[in-house]
Structures are given as structure tokens and as C-alpha cells.
Design goal:
The chain is mainly α. The protein has one domain: Amino acid/polyamine transporter I, CATH 1.20.1740. The chain is about 75% helix and about 0% strand. The protein contains 16 helices and no strands. The N terminus is likely disordered. It is found in: Cell inner membrane.
């Protein structure tokens, strides 16, 4: 089957790896991908998707798996098509040249770095709301709170990539259980919520317009492109010529898990809260979990929901830091400077700390940042660049002619044009 074709030649194989058994490392990566994707975007998805109405949400739910799986598989194949040990910035330069490589590396950085800013704001808001509404204590000044939280996460980052991936995979287990528990807990509280709009079948033009503007948020909500480069490099190191086949298996299982879990959670939320309450949550700049904690007069939910949100946002911050730091270091190297690795690591961490702290203190609209920065810029890297490479790069010619390529390109164009429309409007 062409979709399962190897993305590297036999000469790149470094180990006599076999695909006959599923390893613990495969499970770790599957959960690491899941952990990177499930964060602030997922916790804001019920708000944004629910405000669009019932039928747009149903259509978005049907698109969720193919949209995320085919796009991330394409980006993984792109990284695997490069030389042994090459990350995404190296592969871009290898295929497109130095100038194009520098441009796309810049876009790669700006596709991921705004997500760190979004998570910094979301994390600060979650902890501040928890202290005020559940602990009934006055939060410290926002500047101090955000600085302490971001500094704590960067302390974990200093432990290294493998520690981050393992920590994220361990955090996924309790998070899956907690998110599932909360979604089930909401079932008796279903009031119909979004079903009140089910009888109102929107006009085709209105439906398309709603879907058009919602696609960027969906792209962001299931995105884990920042960790794909490290994932692909490790797969090639582990499986050599079999890396594409095994990485596709890992990706498909990770996406089935995240889509099933997220959609159950989303529908449980939008069936519990009215459109007016979802609009209120958006106005308060809170995640759906923080809003639910304040909404229900239940001590368990009041304490559990913000803690779940904290874990989700924190682990996604860690996963996205890998990609953001990789992009920033690539930019520094492409300027011709060659600082010592430790110096580059410390400078990168200091830059991340200062900028994330400033934005978290200013507290801009999270959904606004997702709509105008996150989804569309990610789409250009995640959806369009691998499809362009399939058309132009000989190493990826084997993937040409697949229907999934047209679908991925169409979704990427929708996300980008939605940004242009939002900015003009």
C-alpha cells in the first residue's frame, strides 16, 4: 500500500529494527504526542466550537481525525526524508536551499512560539482563578505569579528532551482518567445546551462561513507539530528504513485516542452549558475547565477541574518548548553565529522566559491569539509545506497522487484564508 511506503532508503537504516512487536518506547511517544496536542487549544475548543452551533460542530467532529492524522503524517514524512539525524530545520535547508531554509525556519519558529505565549496566559489565568474562587485567597500580583509559573516549567525543560517526553507521557495517564471522569460527570447535567440550535439548519453560506472561521481553532486544538521533528528523528534512529511505517502506526493510535477523548469532552461540555454561558466563558478569558469549576457548586469538580487544566496546559507547554527552542536555535545558527551549546541553551531559555512572562502579564485574549496567530501560521508549516515538498522533492515523490494530499492542502488553504479574512474584517 502506497500510504505505508517507507520514507527513507535502505541506506539510511541504522538498526535491524523489527515491527513485529509494539515497544514501550512506542507507547511513550504515542502518549507524548497526545500530551503535546491536548492543552490550551483543547480546553478552549468547546467554547469556540459551541458558539458556532450544533451542525458546524458535528461537521468539525467528522473532519477531526483525517485532518489531524494526514497532516501530521505528512510533516513526519517530510522530516524522515532528510539525512540521518536531521531535524526539521536541517531538512528544510537540505531540500529547499539555504535562503528558503532560513525563511521556513523563521516561519516554523513563529508557528510555534505564539503557542507558548498562549499557554503562558492560560496557565496564569487558570492558577489565578483557582486561588481566587476555590482556595479563596488573593492571588499575588499577576507579574509575580506568571514569572514563578513560567520559571518552574523552564526548570523542567533544563532536564533535557527525553526527560520532558517521559514526564509528559506519565502526566497523560492521570489526565486521560481525569478528563474522562469530568466528561462522564457532566452527563447527568446535560440540559441540551447546543441542541437548542439543532433545529436551526443554517443556510449553506452561513454554514460554510462558520466552518471556515472555526478551522484554524480546530487546527490549533489538535496540533502537536512542535514535537514531530524530535519524534521523526527518534523514529529514524530506532527503526531506520522502517521508520515511516512505525511512525504512521504511532500517529494513528495517538490521533484516535486524542480525537475520541477530545470530542467526548467537547460534546459533554456543550450539552451542559448554554450558548450564553459559553459566550461568558469566552469574555472571561478562561478555559472551559476553569469556567466549569466556578459554575458547579461541587467541591470535587471545583478543585479537580482547574488542576486538570493546569496539568494539560503545563505538559503542552513543555512539548511546544521543544519545537520553539529548536526553531530559535536554528535561526541563530543560520545567522552564521556558532555559540557554545550551553550558551545557546541558556540564551534561548532566557529569551523564552522574558517574552512569555511579559505576554502572560499583559493577558491578551487567548481565543483571539489562537484565531489570528496560532491556527493559520501552523497551517502553513503543518499542512502546506509537506504537500509542496511532495510535489517538488524527489525523496518524497513516492507520496504523489494520493487523495489525502488534496484534502490536507485544502484544509491548510482554508485556515490561512480565514486569517486574512479576520484581519481585514
Amino acid at each position: 500500500m502506497n500510504d505505508q511506503a517507507n520514507s527513507v532508503d535502505e541506506r539510511y537504516a541504522t538498526t535491524p529494527a523489527t515491527l513485529t512487536s509494539w515497544s514501550r518506547q512506542d507507547t511513550t511517544w504515542m502518549l507524548g504526542l497526545f500530551g503535546t496536542a491536548i492543552g490550551a487549544g483543547t480546553l478552549f475548543l468547546p467554547i469556540n466550537a459551541g458558539l458556532g452551533g450544533f451542525w458546524p460542530l458535528v461537521i468539525l467532529a467528522l473532519l477531526a481525525f483525517p485532518m489531524t492524522f494526514f497532516a501530521h503524517r505528512g510533516l513526519t514524512r517530510f522530516v524522515l526524508s532528510g539525512r540521518e539525524g536531521s531535524d526539521i530545520t536541517d531538512v528544510v535547508e537540505e531540500h529547499f536551499g539555504i535562503k528558503a531554509g532560513a525563511l521556513i525556519t523563521l516561519l516554523y519558529f513563529f508557528a510555534i512560539f505564539p503557542i507558548l505565549l498562549i499557554y503562558s496566559v492560560a496557565l496564569t489565568n487558570t492558577v489565578s482563578s483557582f486561588m481566587e474562587h476555590q482556595l479563596h485567597i488573593l492571588p499575588p500580583p499577576r507579574a509575580i505569579l506568571s514569572f514563578v509559573l513560567i520559571l518552574g516549567l523552564l526548570a523542567v525543560v533544563r532536564c533535557g528532551e527525553q526527560v520532558i517526553v517521559k514526564a509528559m507521557s506519565l502526566m497523560v495517564y492521570p489526565f486521560i482518567v481525569a478528563l474522562l471522569f469530568l466528561a462522564v460527570y457532566l452527563v447527568p447535567h446535560w440540559t441540551g445546551g447546543i441542541l437548542s440550535t439543532a433545529s436551526e439548519v443554517p443556510a449553506p453560506s452561513a454554514l460554510l462561513n462558520t466552518l471556515w472561521l472555526a478551522i484554524p481553532v480546530m487546527v490549533f486544538s489538535f496540533n502537536h507539530s512542535p514535537i514531530i521533528s524530535a519524534f521523526a528523528v527518534d523514529q529514524k534512529r530506532q527503526y531506520g528504513a522502517h521508520a515511516e511505517e512505525r511512525s504512521s502506526q504511532i500517529l494513528s493510535r495517538a490521533h484516535l485516542l486524542m480525537v475520541a477523548m477530545v470530542l467526548f469532552f467537547v460534546f459533554s461540555c456543550v450539552l451542559t452549558l448554554s450558548p450564553a454561558q459559553l459566550a461568558e466563558a469566552k469574555a472571561q478569558n478562561l478555559s472551559i475547565l476553569s469556567y466549569l469549576a466556578n459554575h458547579f457548586d461541587n467541591p470535587t469538580i471545583a478543585f479537580a477541574a482547574p488542576l486538570i487544566a493546569f496539568v494539560a496546559i503545563a505538559k503542552s507547554f513543555l512539548g511546544h518548548y521543544i519545537g520553539a527552542s529548536e526553531g530559535l536555535k536554528g535561526l541563530v545558527v543560520k545567522t552564521g553565529r556558532r555559540p557554545a551549546p550551553k550558551t545557546l541553551d541558556r540564551t534561548t531559555a532566557a529569551f523564552m522566559l522574558v517574552v512569555c512572562w511579559i505576554v502572560a502579564t499583559l493577558n491578551p485574549s487567548i481565543l483571539g491569539m489562537i484565531e489570528t496567530l496560532g491556527g493559520p501560521v501552523i497551517a502553513s508549516i503543518l499542512f502546506l509545506m509537506p504537500m509542496y515538498a511532495i510535489r517538488k522533492v524527489p525523496a518524497m515523490a513516492k507520496y504523489r497522487g494520493q487523495a489525502s494530499n488534496v484534502f490536507v492542502t485544502a484544509v491548510g488553504l482554508v485556515a490561512i484564508t480565514a486569517l486574512v479574512y479576520s484581519l481585514v474584517a
